[in-house]
């Protein structure tokens, strides 16, 4: 396996070398007019500061050149050329770091050909003496081959090894010289396998290592794992997390993964054939890298990989060097990667790049966009008025219904038993069910009208306070009601856990029930949230409602809550204020709404609203104006417009909506709706047209159609049908599922 990655350096915008050869850097030139004396003084001051900075950069040039000369001398001693991929990458990063630090100054960079020529001369004469050392920290579980690898690198027994029990019981430095390069290994006791009983012992080892390297930090960190024991059941993530917690995320920045037992040939469990060596190494490397990403919460980190085989019977080449199944001489590759990493660490130290190294999740949260906030502001908000009617159209329909209820004029009907109903023919059954449905619709309309009239009388003060008090005293508390069970996903468990989600509605007006998450982490419990709802009337004109939901899993905590209060003026206007709180990662979004509804005419309602959104240090202010016109009780037109602004940006938007209700509204929610919305920001406009319809073609069947299209020719169409009688409709869904599965299988083939 060819290892192409060496120590990483920060991004260019952080004044650090880049990670890939394709990355470029740029600098902006500032143009200053020479006719302005004040600007001329600024230019002179700038030139003086640049001159001073150039002097500092000139002091670094000899040190950088001396480091490169040492690097070329080591390459000569090990018999390596500049064409080696690791050497090429190291020289490229040194050159790029030098250019970034030089910036726009006139200081010239270091020439590799000059450093190479001086290295040849010094190496031939042996003067000055090569002073180059590498400190390597060795970490890993017990028994993975840390001490054996140290012995293989020095080609002699420097550390005690044991195949059956831990051989290293204390931290020790193993020092040796290889071709004039001083190599210092910091050998550490092995960690125990990740488990709750071993956490304390592993933490003690890590803390002792942390104290040991405090005075003399290592240049490289090697984390050891056995290549032949890594599989999908890799369970050492808690150990990686503990290492990150004790040493900090920065320890992974100069860490190299070392895979021991790299000559082991694995076979497929099903076929028995050998597994491809390259594929197996890539799979194991990606698996460990994935868990390191989770430990540091940063997916940009990429660690180099070294393959090691310490078995005495390992295959060797003609020169007696141990080679891997892919033909690679692992010992020379090991030393070369450590030397290149050491050179890059020294370059970073000279150019002072260490302070710009940061690992972990991004601290900049996602900021809500103005178009999204404006769309939310323009949405129609129903005010929870104490009248019991939340829709303007409903209120107008009930207020105009002065005629006598049709339900009271119906003749009595005889309710049939099951046996009597079965004796009817098909046409009689249909007529009987339609008659029952018609009577049910009229009865529900009557109930809604009576409720509305009762609330209106209460608001207008026609009923005496004493009468109301007496009625409240004689009113009995409602009985507890058991809510319907939740739809729990199918499971192979013999005990269905639906009883865990049952909820009882009592007279205290508080509804508390768990939130079911089908993909929850706890299979036995299945819920990780609580939902809370309540609504109350403070007095005849003021009402309030609270709704909230809290969810918590192993990693995230989220909360959503909506609090609203409404006041109904006996003269007509309705005033409403609300506070919404939503989680956005680790931050909270606060939204304050204020609405006022004015009824200018009997069939016309005007709504004025303002909003204030706070997210971190950003604040968004918005306002809207909405007008609703109702024609013939069934046709409603809604026109609104608004704007929202923040940080010097402004977004404008508006919408028009026409809705035609069914004749049985509000009992039956049959409707057809056409809408058009426009939004503009930064001289860009978005137009969206929509169509929505919900109707019942026959008894027991509901159809919902939804379609939208924008000016960029993007949109969607959805069609939903549900039936309580015609089960053959489900065949359409079954056909669609099988067709999708067949198409997926064909695509994979």
UniProtKB/TrEMBL annotation:
* Biological process per Gene Ontology, one example term: protein transport
Segments forming domain AIG1-type G: 131-362
An example of a Gene Ontology cellular component annotation for this protein is: chloroplast outer membrane
| Domain of life where this protein originates | Eukaryota
| Region ranges (Disordered) | 455-476
Q: Name one Pfam family in it.
A: AIG1
Q: How does it sit in the membrane?
A: Single-pass membrane protein
- Keyword Cell cycle, does the record have it? no
GO molecular function annotations of the record: GTP binding; GTPase activity; metal ion binding
Alphabetic keyword roster: Chloroplast, GTP-binding, Hydrolase, Magnesium, Membrane, Metal-binding, Nucleotide-binding, Plastid, Plastid outer membrane, Protein transport, Transmembrane, Transmembrane helix, Transport
Q: Which family does it belong to?
A: Belongs to the TRAFAC class TrmE-Era-EngA-EngB-Septin-like GTPase superfamily. AIG1/Toc34/Toc159-like paraseptin GTPase family. TOC159 subfamily.
Q: Indicate what this protein is called per its UniProt record.
A: AIG1-type G domain-containing protein
Name its species: Rhizophora mucronata (Asiatic mangrove)
The major lineage groups are: Eukaryota, Viridiplantae, Streptophyta, Embryophyta, Tracheophyta
């Amino acid at each position: 396996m060819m290892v192409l990655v060496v120590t990483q350096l920060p991004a260019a915008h952080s004044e650090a070398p880049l990670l890939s050869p394709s990355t470029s850097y740029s600098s902006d030139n500032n143009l200053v007019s020479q006719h302005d004396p004040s600007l001329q003084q600024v230019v002179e001051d700038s030139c003086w500061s640049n001159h001073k900075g150039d002097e500092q950069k000139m002091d670094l040039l000899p040190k950088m050149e001396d480091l490169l000369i040492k690097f070329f001398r080591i390459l000569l001693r090990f018999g390596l050329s500049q064409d080696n991929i690791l050497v090429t990458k190291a020289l490229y990063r040194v050159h790029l770091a030098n250019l970034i630090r030089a910036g726009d100054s006139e200081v010239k960079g270091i020439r590799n050909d000059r450093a190479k020529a001086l290295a040849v001369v010094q190496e031939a004469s042996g003067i000055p003496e090569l002073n180059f050392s590498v400190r390597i920290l060795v970490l890993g579980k017990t028994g993975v081959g840390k001490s054996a690898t140290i012995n293989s690198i020095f080609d002699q027994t420097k550390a005690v090894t044991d195949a059956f029990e831990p051989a290293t019981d204390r931290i020790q430095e193993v020092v040796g010289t290889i071709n004039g390069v001083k190599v210092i290994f910091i050998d550490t006791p092995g960690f125990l396998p990740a488990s709750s009983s071993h956490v304390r012992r592993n933490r003690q080892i890590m803390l002792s290592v942390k104290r040991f390297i405090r005075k003399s930090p290592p240049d490289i960190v090697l984390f050891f794992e056995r290549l032949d024991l890594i599989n999908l059941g890799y369970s050492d993530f808690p150990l990686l997390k503990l290492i990150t917690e004790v040493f900090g995320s920065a320890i992974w920045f100069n860490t190299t993964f070392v895979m021991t037992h790299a000559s082991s040939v694995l076979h497929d469990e099903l076929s028995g054939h050998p597994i491809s060596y390259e594929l197996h190494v890539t799979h194991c490397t990606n698996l460990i890298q994935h868990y390191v990403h989770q430990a540091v919460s940063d997916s940009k980190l990429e660690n180099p990989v070294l393959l090691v085989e310490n078995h005495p019977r390992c295959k060797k080449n003609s020169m007696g060097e141990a080679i891997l199944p892919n033909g690679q001489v692992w010992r020379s590759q090991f030393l070369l990667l450590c030397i290149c990493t050491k050179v890059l660490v020294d370059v970073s130290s000279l150019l002072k790049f260490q302070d710009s190294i940061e690992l972990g999740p991004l601290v900049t949260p996602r900021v809500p966009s103005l178009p999204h906030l404006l769309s939310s502001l323009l949405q129609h908000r129903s005010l929870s008025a104490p009248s019991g009617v939340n829709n303007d159209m409903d209120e107008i329909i009930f207020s105009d219904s002065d005629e006598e209820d049709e339900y009271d004029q119906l003749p009595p009907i005889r309710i049939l038993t099951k046996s009597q109903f079965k004796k009817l023919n098909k046409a009689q059954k249909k007529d009987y069910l339609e008659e029952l449905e018609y009577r049910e619709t009229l009865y529900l309309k009557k109930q809604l009208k009576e409720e509305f009239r009762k609330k209106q009388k209460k608001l207008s003060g026609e009923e005496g306070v004493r009468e109301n008090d007496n009625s409240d005293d004689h009113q009995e508390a409602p009985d507890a009601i058991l809510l319907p069970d939740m739809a729990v996903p199918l499971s192979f468990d013999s005990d269905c856990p639906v009883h865990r989600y049952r909820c009882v509605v009592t007279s205290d007006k508080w509804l508390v029930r768990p939130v079911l998450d089908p993909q929850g982490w706890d299979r036995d419990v299945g819920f990780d949230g609580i939902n809370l709802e309540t609504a109350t009337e403070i007095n005849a004109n003021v009402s309030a409602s609270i709704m909230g939901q809290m969810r918590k899993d192993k990693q995230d905590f989220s909360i959503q809550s909506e609090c609203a209060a409404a006041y109904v003026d006996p003269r007509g206007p309705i005033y409403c204020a609300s506070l919404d709180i939503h989680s956005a990662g680790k931050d909270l979004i606060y939204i304050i709404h204020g609405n006022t509804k004015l009824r200018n005419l009997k069939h016309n309602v005007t709504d004025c609203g303002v909003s204030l959104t706070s997210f971190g240090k950003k604040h968004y202010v918005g306002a809207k104006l909405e007008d609703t016109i109702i024609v013939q009780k069934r046709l409603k037109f809604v026109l609104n417009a608004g704007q929202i602004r923040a940080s010097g940006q402004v977004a404008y938007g508006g919408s028009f909506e026409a809705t035609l209700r069914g004749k049985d509204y509000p009992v039956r929610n049959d409707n057809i709706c056409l809408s058009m919305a426009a939004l503009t920001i930064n001289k860009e406009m978005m137009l969206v047209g929509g169509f929505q319809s919900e109707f019942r073609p026959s008894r027991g069947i509901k159809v919902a159609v939804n379609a939208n299209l924008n000016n960029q020719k993007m949109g969607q169409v959805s069609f939903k049908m549900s039936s309580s009688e015609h089960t053959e409709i489900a065949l359409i869904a079954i056909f669609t599922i099988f067709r999708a599965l067949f198409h997926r299988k064909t695509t994979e083939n």
